[in-house]
Structures are given as C-alpha cells and as structure tokens.
User: What shape does this take?
Amino acid sequence: MKGMRWAVVFLLILSVVAAGCLDNNFVYAKGKSVSPGETKEWPFKGPANLTVKLTSNLPVEVKVVSADGEVLKDFGTVKEVNEVVKLPKGRWKVVVRNPCNETAVIDVTLKT
Assistant: This one.
C-alpha cells in the first residue's frame, strides 16, 4: 500500500512538471549546442512581455513566431539579442536556427 501511495505522488508530481513545460515562463540554457541546420524552439503564452537575451559564438537566426508560423519579431541573423517583445494573446515560440556549417553554442535566457 505504501508503494502505491508513492507511485501516485510521483505521477502527480510528474504531471504537474510536464504541464509546466508546455508553456514556459522562464528558460535558461548556457552552452547549448545547435548543430548546422538545427532549430531550437521554446513555447510561450501571451499576452506577456517576453525578455529575449541570447549570445552565440556564430550568427544564428532568431525569431518570435505564432503557433501557425506568423512572424511577430525577426531579429535577423545575429550573435546577440537583448530585447523585450510584447506578445499578444495566443501561443508563441522563440525559434533559434543555425544557418552555419559549424555547431553554434548559445546562451539563452527567455522570461515573461
């Protein structure tokens, strides 16, 4: 019976953590590798003010897009971003793509 109780508690905690991962309100990744042609995405829910801070050893493409692909903010191909983006109501994601032929290493902080 005690083992069953722990299993239920574990599943409850796991479901809460998984639900929290669907709509981030904070992302911090230091030294994240992005292979050539690879894309990394982080979802957010609006309305919110989203702080986007990113540094990279190589130029990477950075955009904020809606769930259906509408570009809200295109930062271009850059090595650094430090801006606040006003997210309208809906689901949004920060997309980082490496267009280079080498692996990029990024540090990224995203928070609402």
